[in-house]
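Limitations

Structures in this collection are predictions, not experimental determinations, and the ligand pose is part of the prediction. Treat each record accordingly. The example that follows, with adenosine-5'-diphosphate as the small molecule, is included so readers can see exactly what is and is not provided: the inputs are given verbatim, and the output is the predicted complex.
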Amino acid sequence: MEPKTKYNVLFAASEADPLVKVGGLGDVAGSLPAALRCLPSSADYPNLDVRLVIPFHSTVRQKVKDAKLVAEFSVPHPRKKLNGFAYQTQVNDLPVYLIGGDLIPEDEPVYSPDHRTDALKYVFFSVAILEMAKALKWPLDILHVNDWHTALAAYVLKLRKPTDPFFEYTGSLLSIHNLPFMGAAAEKVVAEFGIPPTKDPKMPVWSWQIPLPMGLQAADRIMAVSPTYADEILTPEFGCDLQQFLMTRHRDLGGILNGLDTRTWDPETDNNIPSRFSEDNLSARAINKQALLDEFQLESNPSVPLLILIGRFDRQKGVDIALGGLRLIKDLSWQIIMLGTGDPLLEESAHKMEAELPGKVRAALRFDAALARRMYAGGDILLMPSRYEPCGLAQMIAMRYGCLPLARATGGLRDTITDDPKGDSNTGFLFAAASPEAFAARLTRALEQFKDQAAWVKMQQRAMRLDFSWQKSALAYAKLYYQIREGEL
Ligand code: ADP
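Predicted complex:
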């Protein structure tokens, strides 16, 4: 058969900016599908009709008022009659389906603190994705799922393929944005939906009925969101006890670095920052630092480096490593503004440090997208001492805004930041061990480097000139879709 020249691609995720964003997955799902639609025609890959599907979360309901009902369907369950429906809206040129129904609550957050509510929602959503495609009579060439919330759809697809001609030619791809979050609490709900366990002897028994491992078993291809993370998950340190199983799939496993939506993350056009700037006009950037210091009532002195930390307060992000490391060098010259929410103990620890060092520490314990932009635009160094980091977007945004990242050399951080001892290609600062001592040692040297402002500006310009757009990665995904669909595995 001749290869098809146009593919229908359904991109499924739990969140997608600008409709709903909790973390980096929202950034990716909000920008990759659009980037795929914009790829130029080429003989190397088909044209892509990419559409996005997310749950009709309560926050999305509040934002989207013009969505049209396009499909109604039932979601298979051995004992209950479950109804689902899909609305359609448009974000710029991207068609977006919003799935609601019996188990998609209308008044819960995107990720509920109640594990069962979340399990019901995302198992229902995963199954509903396939029912929606059928109800729309939109035959899928590629189903691209992301993380545990939608991974099960790839598994259900594999079960359905032999008996349902509608899915005969549908290939699947699972992107791993965060391996440790497997949806373990959904195990019982998966059984309640009558979805059989994999019983794959290559997999550990505990993982047989958990959404992410089930998706890893079933997907035609598995992509981690950076090449280094793809390697790391094959090791005991990062593999979450699935490394041996993942080794058996290593021919189908790879890594494609996430990109950034460089139109919305652009210091030359960002309306949220007091003074817009470019790499050729870095003096305009100083106004942003001054405004930020004023906003947080910190004393202004251009020779004092302003550190920023933005992200989920979570063990993964190494917030404890940063706080511990900063305590070790509390007498050096620096100031810090932290923005984030999460683990109450880490939040308390940040507050305590603010009280201990009132002249240098501020903690804003909330989610505030506009403040994050003001911080990227005014901070000198972004701290990102992650224990693991599948890709990480904050460091890319920071570099684009001339704020140099200091990060642990892991996952996507290693793939995006250059810390070259000779110093002629540096775009940031990396350290190896996940310890306050290693963090403090690298930061101490970075603070020294800050004193040489001429070299610092060169580094900022180098970082700002890096191409973090989706172009290259979107192309890699398009070629991958082609290989999956045409069976070139
Ligand atoms: P992750 O997806 O693991 O949370 P990433 O670095 O990939 O981490 O992406 C985090 C994204 O969320 C970035 O765009 C960052 O600016 C944003 N972000 C995280 N915490 C906050 C917060 N408290 N307020 C505003 N933006 C935040």
